[in-house]
Design a protein that fits this description.
The chain is mainly alpha-helical. Helices cover 65% and strands 0% of the residues. The chain is built from 5 helices and no strands. The relative contact order is 0.05.
């Protein structure tokens, strides 16, 4: 493989990643629009929790519901059973494996110190 080919493959990968990010951003914008309509349906009862994913009234989702729903979706996709919280650990491992600085990973996970992140 020539150096020029390598650069071209990196550019293709970057473009593919950018398309995925654009689709994710569009999905979040659509979700935000849906939430605005839900807010209108609850003029006096809307809870402004500041969260992206909420109940119909804006209140935070119950942790148990998230875990049960995640387990059902994972089973439907024939994935091995893991806890929803385990995704945090998996993402941290992937970030560190990709060479992301430990302090950045620690901040992303909202850990108090990079030492804690390294220990877990």
């Amino acid at each position: 493989m020539k150096l020029g080919d390598l650069r071209e493959s990196h550019i293709r990968e970057l473009h593919a990643a950018m398309r995925k990010i654009s689709r994710a951003a569009a999905a979040l914008e659509s979700w935000q629009e849906s939430q605005l309509f839900e807010r209108l349906e609850w003029p006096d009862g809307w809870t402004d929790s500041g969260r992206v994913f909420t109940g119909d009234d804006g209140s935070p989702l119950r942790e148990e519901w998230i875990s049960v729903r995640f387990a059902a979706l994972a089973a439907k996709a024939s994935l091995p059973p893991i806890r929803f919280h385990d995704l945090r650990h998996g993402s941290a491992s992937l970030l560190l494996g990709a060479g992301v600085d430990l302090k950045v990973v620690s901040a992303t996970l909202a850990h108090a110190t990079a030492a804690f992140t390294a220990d877990v």
